Amino acid sequence: xxxxxxxxxxxxxxxxxxxxxxxxxxxxxxxxxxxxxxxxxxxxxxxxxxxxxxxxxxxxxxxxxxxxxxxxxxxxxxxxxxxxxxxxxxxxxxxxxxxxxxxxxxxxxxxxxxxxxxxxxxxxxxxxxxxxxxxxxxxxxxxxxxxxxxxxxxxxxxxxxxxxxxxxxxxxxxxxxxxxxxxxxxxxxxxxxxxxxxxxxxxxxxxxxxxxxxxxxxxxxxxxxxxxxxxxxxxxxxxxxxxxxxxxxxxxxxxxxxxxxxxxxxxxxxxxxxxxxxxxxxxxxxxxxxxxxxxxxxxxxxxxxxxxxxxxxxxxxxxxxxxxxxxxxxxxxxxxxxxxxxxxxxxxxxxxxxxxxxxxxxxxxxxxxxxxxxxxxx
Length: 378
What we know:
single chain; 378 residues; mainly beta; Methylamine Dehydrogenase, Chain H; five-stranded antiparallel sheet; 2% helix; disordered N terminus
C-alpha cells in the first residue's frame, strides 16, 4: 500500500487537454464518521487526487493519481501552479497500525506528464495541511497544525527545497489557513488553537511573525483572499456545540489590517471561498452533519450559502443543501460553476451559479471522502 502511494500509480489514465482549466480534489478514504467520530477505516484503499476538468460543463474527472492526503485541517491542502503544469498536495494524517496518526507528507505532482505522476515526496511538519505559493511561485508555505509551525520551501525547477521553519511559539496554536497577498511580501495565518490570526512578513525565504495579532472569532480556521488582495475572509469554527458561528472579513487596505465585518452562519463554516471576480463569497457549513445521532442540532446535510460582497460587507443571496461533513469549494475560472466537497457522501456536489440562484448538477463521485480542493486561480 505504502509503495503504491509513493509511486503515484494512476487509476484513471486519460491525459487531460493542455488547455483544460482544472481543479484537484484530494480524497481521503481512510477515515469515516461513526456516530459523529472520525474513525479509521480497516484496510483502506490509497488516498488519491482527482484531476477535474472545469473548462466545460458538466465538469468531469480526467485523471486520478495515488497521493497521500487527509481530511484533517482546512480543506485547502492543494496548490496548483499558475500554468497548471504542477501541483502540491499535503497530508496531515496517515494510518499507523490501524489507527490515525499525524503525518507530514508533501507531494509534488507533474501535471504535464502523460499520465500525471508523482515526482517528489518530502516532509514538512506534523499535521501538514494548507499549502500556498507566493505569487511569483518562488516560495511555498505549509501550515503544520500538529507542530505549531509553518514550513518554508524554495521552488527550483518545479521541485521543493526546505528553506526553514516559522515557529509560532505555541505548539498548540494550530496553524491552519494561509493566504498570501499579491505583493508576495505578506501573508496571513489562522491559529485556531490560540484564537488569533498572525501577519507574516516575507523577505526572500525569511518569514517572520508580526507582533500584532489580528483578533477574529473563536477558532479561526479556513481563510481565503479575493483576487484584488483587498479582503480576506475567515471562517471561525467556534466550539462545535451547535451554536451559529461567524465568518468575518479582514480589510487588507487598512493599516494595520483589521476585522471590519462579521456575519452569523450555520455551525462550523469550514468552506470559505471567494468567486474569481471577488463579487461573491461561498460559505459551506457542516451544520451538524458531522455529529452523532441524538445531537440536538444534528442535520443530515451541510449548507452552502452564497453572499454578495458589497464594499467591506456581505449580503446573503441564496442558500442550498449540500452533502454531509462538507469540506472545500472551488469555482470555475469564469465563476459560473461551483464545486462543493462532501466527505460523508464521498462526492463533489456541482452547481451552476448566475449571481442570484444555484442550480444543482450531477455530483462527481471520487475515490474516498472529498477532503481538500484547489485551482490555479483565486
